[in-house]
Design a protein that fits this description.
The protein is an alpha/beta fold. About 30% of the residues lie in helices and about 30% in strands. The strands form four sheets. A seven-stranded mixed β-sheet has the order 3-2-1-4-7-15-16. It has a four-stranded antiparallel β-sheet with strand order 9-12-8-13. It binds ribulose-5-phosphate. One of its GO terms (molecular function) is ribose-5-phosphate isomerase activity. One of its GO terms (biological process) is pentose-phosphate shunt, non-oxidative branch. This is Ribose-5-phosphate isomerase A. Its EC number is 5.3.1.6.
Length: about 230
């Protein structure tokens, strides 16, 4: 399967929901990058569009394409947010955070009047959990927070959970906000909303990568076209 073509087609379909004058939440990752690209092309055609980026990488891309950037603290209105996902289930629950941008992505998606997810079809699953769940935590007392997360996961029935501080070449990965990511291998999540609530209740946890009850539409693409789930 040509995943990149699927990502592009999904992004093109999402762009049909963009109207002149909108303030857009711009997601992060290789799929969202296609959407930003299309928005840049619209701006070049003279469309008045503004973008709220969910990462520094997206900000750089949008700026390079001439999209006017609005800081999240400068607006209370986001008309439409479009972002990718690492996994999506039939109830539109998501795992996000593979690109370490989940806190900003969730703030923007939650604020948006409409949240559309774009993904290649490999992201569609019957149950979440094969992709390790990213959780963004404060660096302060991070080992204490991880211990609390482990206790919570056992209480939630994940006796075999494996928690790992995300790192590259021995260096812990820092999010754009200077936070850490803990990847939790859980295998299968039967009640994502319950787990999201339990993890987010732990002091030191800034956000977990479960996005439940937030997604209005998922557009899946493959080389043959798109399918839309509402
Ligand atoms: C970043 C994300 C991304 O949306 C997710 O990782 C999907 O990325 P890609 O479109 O590159 O597969 O949540 O934090």
């Amino acid at each position: 399967m040509d995943k990149d073509r699927g990502k592009r087609l999904a992004a093109e379909e999402a762009a049909k929901h963009v109207e002149r004058g909108m303030t857009l939440g711009l997601g992060t990752g290789s799929t969202a990058a296609h959407f930003v690209d299309i928005i840049g092309a619209r701006v070049a055609e003279g469309w008045p569009l503004k973008g709220v980026p969910t990462s520094e990488a997206t900000r750089r891309q949008a700026e390079s394409l001439g999209v006017e950037i609005i800081e999240p603290h400068e607006t209370t209105v986001i008309d439409l947010a479009v972002d990718g996902a690492d996994e999506a289930d039939p109830q539109h629950n998501l795992i996000k955070g593979g690109g370490a941008a989940l806190l900003r992505e969730k703030v923007v998606a939650y604020a948006a009047k409409k949240f559309i997810v774009i993904a290649d079809k490999s992201k569609r699953v019957t149950a979440l959990g094969a992709f390790p769940l990213p959780v963004e935590i404060s660096p302060y007392g991070w080992a204490l927070t991880v211990a609390a997360m482990r206790r919570t996961l056992v209480e939630q029935g994940f006796q075999n959970a494996k928690l790992e501080l995300r790192s590259i070449d021995g260096n812990s990965v820092k999010t754009d906000g200077g936070n850490l990511i803990i990847d939790c291998s859980l295998e299968r999540i039967n009640d994502p909303a319950r787990l999201e609530k339990a993890l987010n209740a732990i002091p030191g946890v800034l956000e977990c990568g479960l996005f439940c009850g937030m997604t209005d539409m998922i557009i899946y693409g493959d080389e043959d076209g798109v399918s839309v789930s509402t």
